[in-house]
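User: Need the bound-state model for coenzyme A:
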Amino acid sequence: MEFDANNSPFIRLPVPNEKIIITPSRYSDGDAVIELLSDPRVYMNLAGPPYPYGQKEWDSWFPILEKASKDTLAEWREVEQARKEGSHGRQWVTGAHGAPVTAIREVDSVTGEQKFIGSIDATRKNWLFYGVTEENKRKQEANDALEAGDPKIQWDLGFYLAPSHHRRGIMSAAMNAIVHDFLVPYMNAHLIAGSYFEYNSGSRKVFEKNGFVFQEIVPDYYELPESKAGTSGKKVGVGFMKWTRNV
Ligand SMILES: CC(C)(COP(=O)(O)OP(=O)(O)OC[C@H]1O[C@@H](n2cnc3c(N)ncnc32)[C@H](O)[C@@H]1OP(=O)(O)O)[C@@H](O)C(=O)NCCC(=O)NCCS
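Assistant: Bound-state model below.
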């Protein structure tokens, strides 16, 4: 992670995607976020964000992302300090949304303008997506209760990219950077779950390129909301992937 002239963190992707950086989310991203989450090539592949997605949704989501980023950065500074001093201070970051940087941007090499093109974040595994059962509720509570840095914490990754930028290797590189520049060294991530709608071969490939291992496809696992499918009861199969840190 590097810092810009305003002391704001960013991660730059390697060549050939060196014009792509990942930074904290900004309120001014709202219009671009709304546009992307209103595009069927994006929202039909996502289970998380509400649909339709408008200003109201962004206004309630942005403060959550902003707080997570600030808290994570503050903890990261404590960790860096403790490691430098070799002290017993904070060793790991909580990372409510993974790294403090979640917004993927393309930098215009002439004007320097930064255009929001996507998002990647990590959250503690949402067990209830895997079935609203008493057992999963217990697993969720247990996972949520683990201390920062506990290698037993299970994580989920969520991501999307503007269709204008698909198939340039951007998300594969972004996932690699977030996992290896932040989740592993600062959050001690050992277990990351991934899931994708079965028709989303691009997403599965991004996971595979990052060392996730295919587990299974469960047919008719997820019921698309009527707002997206135009009718109720339309179900899609979900593929499950798993990344385990090699130690
Ligand atoms: C899925 C998504 C993140 C892929 O991002 P991307 O930056 O285009 O992916 P990459 O360019 O890193 O591609 C990785 C590999 O997948 C392949 N791939 C990407 N999109 C593909 C598609 N639609 N169909 C088949 N293969 C695809 C690429 O060719 C590449 O394979 P290669 O290295 O063998 O050439 C992007 O399409 C997206 O944001 N889609 C909408 C939202 C979404 O699906 N989010 C994920 C929810 S689980």
